[in-house]
Amino acid sequence: MSDACIHSGQGGTCCTPSQHGVPISFGLAAIVALFIGSALWLTVTRLAGSIQASGRIEVDSSRHVIEHPTGGTIEQIYVKSGDHVTRGQVLMRLASDDIRTELAIVEASDFALQAQRARLQAERDGANTVPYPRQLLEAAKLRADVTDLVEGQNSLFEARKQSFAQQRADMARQLQQIRAQRDGLDAQVSALEREERLIEKELALRERLKDRGLATSAQILALTREQVSLERQLGALSAQKTQLTVQSGGVVLTASRLQWQRREEIESQLESSNARAIELSARTTHLRNELARRTLRAPVSGTVHDVRLRGAHAVLRPAEMAMAIVETGRPLIINAQVDPTNIDGLEAGQTAILRFPGLSRRISSDVTGTITRISPDTLTDPATGASYYKVRITFDMGELDAEERRLLVPGMPAEVFLQTAPVSPIRYLLSPFLDFFALGGAAG
User: Which CATH number is 49-60+327-421 given?
Assistant: First the structure.
């Protein structure tokens, strides 16, 4: 039976069973080896995952947004998108007629106060002229109203000085008249005293003559009456001298009181002006700062971007973006938007592959980047309302030549391929089923 031939077809070919067994064994072994190899490959091999996301080239720092806290009406715009500006350059001005008007009023009040204070200080110190502040004199060269203020204070200073001098002169004349009257009284007293001494001598002589019988009592009585009259006149003159002394003291006191009152008045006005000066200075500083804020300047040197207002008379709302400045000299980065369902497995330090579809004909090779930061929470795209995680990616500009680096500008789109953590093929194949059963178990 073992030697029997198995005929096949018309050719009469004869095959033994042993000849069929060898290929079958090899086939089974190959199948087993393939199965075992596939199992090992599915469990041991690691496949690197990749997530595609859209991104945009930006400068490695936030754009410098130009805005105003209170807004206003545009007076003039000096730049347009694409212009290069330097730090401090004027970009636009807001209408400021109201501030300028108020500032002019406050400055005029301040100049008037400065002129008044200078005049009061000169009067207090007894100066011959008013030493005005240099700032006031410089303003007087340019402004007629300030010149009028200075001239008005000069006239008032001279008038008050002359008035005070006239009052002092009047009092000096009064004192001089009193002294003259006292001198006259002193002369009269001196004459009467001499006359009194003569009468005393004559009276003594008459007394001796009377003792000898050569003089009468009537003669002695007449001399005594005359002596009493002289004493009465001397008393009256002494009273007049006392009255003149009192008058002189009153004039001196009045002069002192006049000077003291004048100084007190000046000091009181200076003290009042101090508070007013502080108020005006603070108000002037505030208005000047507010006026300066109506002029929007470039905070950094860079390129003007996204000018949103078109010419004068447009209204800029409070905190509304007027334009942006993209700072020059800063490295470029990619900010990508990653769907929240793909964020698992991404972390800082992972590699990213960058492509620039707008320059695919000029930049043919991919650029390697590195994830440096992932936003801690989702953000919302204001245009679409979609949620996303913001992923910041840096890349080495050295991979590009000079011409390619020149072509990259902020705002250009980029395709980003983010490499995730490696997984086994079996895990990759079974993941949908595992997720399905996990969701089913949770639902149950």
Answer: 2.40.30.170
Tens digits of residue pLDDT in 243-297 = 988 888 888 888 888 888 888 899 999 988 888 999 999 999 999 999 999 999 9
Q: Name residues whose C-beta falls within 8 Å of residue 147's C-beta, 6 or more positions apart in sequence.
A: 140
d(CA 260, CA 323): 65
Give the whole-angstrom CA distance, residue 77 versus residue 301.
Answer: 18
Are the C-beta atoms of 337 and 319 separated by less than 8 Å? no
Q: Please, how many CA atoms are within 13 Å of residue 342, restricted to the half-sphere of its CB?
A: 19
Element (H, E) at 76: strand 72-77
The DSSP 8-state label assigned to residue 358 in this structure reads G
- Segments in 69-143 forming alpha helices (H): 97-125, 134-142
Amino acid at 378: T
Q: Are 229 and 198 in contact (CB under 8 A)?
A: no
- CATH pick for 64-94+297-325 out of 3.40.50.1000, 2.60.120.330, 2.40.50.100, 1.20.1250.20: 2.40.50.100
Query: Which residue matches tokens 């320059």?
Result: 359
Residue 233 and residue 260 in contact, taking contact as beta carbons nearer than 8 Å = no
**How many Cβ atoms from other residues are within 10 Å of residue 307's Cβ?**
19
Q: Give tens-digit pLDDT for 201-254.
A: 888 888 888 888 777 888 888 888 888 988 899 899 889 988 988 888 888 888
Token code pair at residue 391: 């992923």
What is d(CA 337, CA 415) in angstroms, rounded to the nearest whole number? 10
